[in-house]
Design a protein that fits this description.
single chain; 173 residues; alpha/beta; 6-stranded mixed sheet; 8 helices; 49% helix
Length: 173
């Protein structure tokens, strides 16, 4: 596990501020007036443990335009990492990959496959069957995770060291 103090020390040496993140929870119940489920706080906790400052958690329904707007707002806002949960399965309302793909300048297929593979290895079928994407939009890393606690925990454990590496690489430009 990456120690938060190590991340901060490396950031100071490289002249990089603490990386910023935004969490997007996709859940149709949000459109019905219900609040985001417990996955948002879990993602925030895991991001903070990995040395990120989380600007906000936002919840949107499974509408492609709403999802795209939430991710694009984060990119325009200059966060380093956007992590979304939900909407990556094979159901008719699972449109997060379709909303995400047009926003990506470059796909990070290795991260996508690492998250799926580690999810399957950990016994999380929804993570293994996820159509979630990972990529770079401008100077922001965007990653879609499945919406179960197991998928989030395993996906974040796989993602964090890779995200730090990608953020450092793209911030050098």
């Amino acid at each position: 596990m990456i120690d938060s103090a190590d991340v901060e020390a490396e950031a100071v040496v490289r002249g990089i501020a603490t990386p910023r993140a935004l969490v997007v929870v996709i859940d149709d119940r949000i459109g019905d007036g219900e609040g985001p489920e417990l996955l948002g706080p879990l993602v925030v906790e895991l991001l903070e443990e990995a040395g990120f400052h989380v600007d906000a958690t936002t919840g949107v329904s499974g509408d492609e335009v709403e999802i795209r707007n939430a991710i694009n707002t984060a990119v325009i806002g200059g966060v380093d990492l956007v992590v979304s949960t939900g909407g990556v399965g094979v159901g008719p309302r699972d449109v997060v990959p379709e909303a995400t793909e047009p926003l990506l300048d470059r796909r990070l297929r290795g991260i996508e496959e690492a998250i799926r593979s580690s999810g399957l290895s950990a016994g999380s079928a929804d993570a293994g069957l996820s159509r979630g994407m990972a990529g770079i939009s401008g100077q922001t890393v965007v990653v879609n995770l499945a919406d179960s606690r197991a998928a989030v925990r395993d996906g974040m454990a796989t993602l964090m060291p890779l995200a730090h590496h990608v953020i450092a690489a793209i911030s050098e430009f």
